[in-house]
């Protein structure tokens, strides 16, 4: 595990960079000064008019990891038009459609972390 301390006191645990045409996406797993884990999703692109980079960031905190990852995968599957042939196996069953039934809070043993590769194109 890579641990790099930043100026604001947070520690970077893992960092990934994804180049997608003129955009760069970053996925950073961090640890704050109180020991809480969180993920920062960042998008950086160049502003053509000003020649300056523009950055957007989303912070996802540990208690929301399971909900956000499940919703993201479901959304990708619903709109992918065959880009992803099947749901990546993350070690548990993730429904392809949202269910109207009562939801229970995910337990630590229910959540496993995995990864998969996506091929990004410049069609936009």
From TrEMBL:
Mind telling me which InterPro entries this protein's record contains?
Answer: PUR-bd_fam (IPR006628)
Region labeled Disordered — which residues?
88-124
An annotated Gene Ontology molecular function: RNA polymerase II transcription regulatory region sequence-specific DNA binding
Pfam families, per this entry?
DUF3276
Q: What is this protein called?
A: PF11680 family protein
Keyword list, A-Z: DNA-binding
**What family, per the record?**
Belongs to the PUR DNA-binding protein family.
- Name the source organism: Porphyromonas catoniae ATCC 51270
């Amino acid at each position: 595990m890579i641990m790099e301390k930043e100026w604001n006191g947070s520690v970077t645990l893992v960092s990934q960079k994804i180049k997608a045409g003129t955009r760069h996406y970053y996925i950073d797993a961090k640890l704050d000064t109180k020991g809480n884990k969180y993920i920062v999703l960042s998008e950086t692109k160049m502003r053509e008019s000003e020649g300056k980079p523009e950055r957007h960031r989303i912070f996802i905190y540990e208690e929301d990891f399971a909900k956000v990852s499940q919703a993201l995968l479901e959304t990708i599957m619903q709109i992918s038009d065959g880009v992803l042939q099947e749901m990546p196996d993350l070690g548990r069953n993730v429904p392809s459609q949202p269910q109207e039934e009562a939801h229970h809070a995910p337990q630590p043993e229910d959540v496993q972390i995995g990864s998969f590769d996506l091929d990004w194109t410049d069609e936009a």
